[in-house]
Description:
The complex is a heterodimer.
Chain A: E1 3-5, E2 10-14, E3 19-21, E4 24-26, E5 33-38, E6 45-50, E7 56-58, E8 64-68, E9 73-78, E10 87-97, E11 100-105, E12 109-114
Parallel strand pairs in A: 2-12
Antiparallel strand pairs in A: 1-4, 3-9, 5-6, 5-10, 7-8, 8-9, 10-11, 10-12
Chain B: E1 4-7, E2 10-13, E3 19-25, E4 31-37, E5 44-50, E6 53-56, E7 64-67, E8 73-78, E9 87-94, E10 104-105, E11 109-113
Parallel strand pairs in B: 2-11
Antiparallel strand pairs in B: 1-3, 3-8, 4-5, 4-9, 5-6, 7-8, 9-10, 9-11
Amino acid sequence: AQSVSQHNHHVILSEAASLELGCNYSYGGTVNLFWYVQYPGQHLQLLLKYFSGDPLVKGIKGFEAEFIKSKFSFNLRKPSVQWSDTAEYFCALPGVSGGYNKLIFGAGTRLAVHP
Amino acid sequence: DAMVIQNPRYQVTQFGKPVTLSCSQTLNHNVMYWYQQKSSQAPKLLFHYYDKDFNNEADTPDNFQSRRPNTSFCFLDIRSPGLGDAAMYLCATSGGTSGNNEQFFGPGTRLTVL
């Protein structure tokens, strides 16, 4: 069965620090991977996605993620965080249920950036 | 702007009193999803509609029902809310159900059960 693990549940950083959030998945087939972000009081929105091709994916707001197949990982990175990056970040993988795809989310990482 | 709208944003109900949450979309997407998200947890899929085709997750309690009268609207009915049903309920849409379809989320309805 497909699964997604995010090992860092809470991360606290100062502005300008570098960020790396871990995401590991379990799935043997063709992999599509997503990172979603939920800013305080706002809806979940797509940060970036990997379908195929270049394993280094660039998203909005300076975020990027690298798909490493041998490590079953899709870690999210940003070289220099800002206070406005304070949010909860979810890694997600399409799973299959009843013949239809659905999104399987990791437990999320809550990021707090201090000025 | 095309979007996913949820009403109300906050809903308070009493233990055992039926409640209905509403979702509408202007994206003209085929698929609409309902998720339950409890505090500090990942969103958990309850069910989804592909057009009028309803797909229930195996572990979704019978207490949760859904209706989709047309492409634009989808409702979540909780027949007898319990204290454990207090959560954020998220509606999402996508253009299809293949693995590369992005889901677009509404702002959620926060349900409180007294």
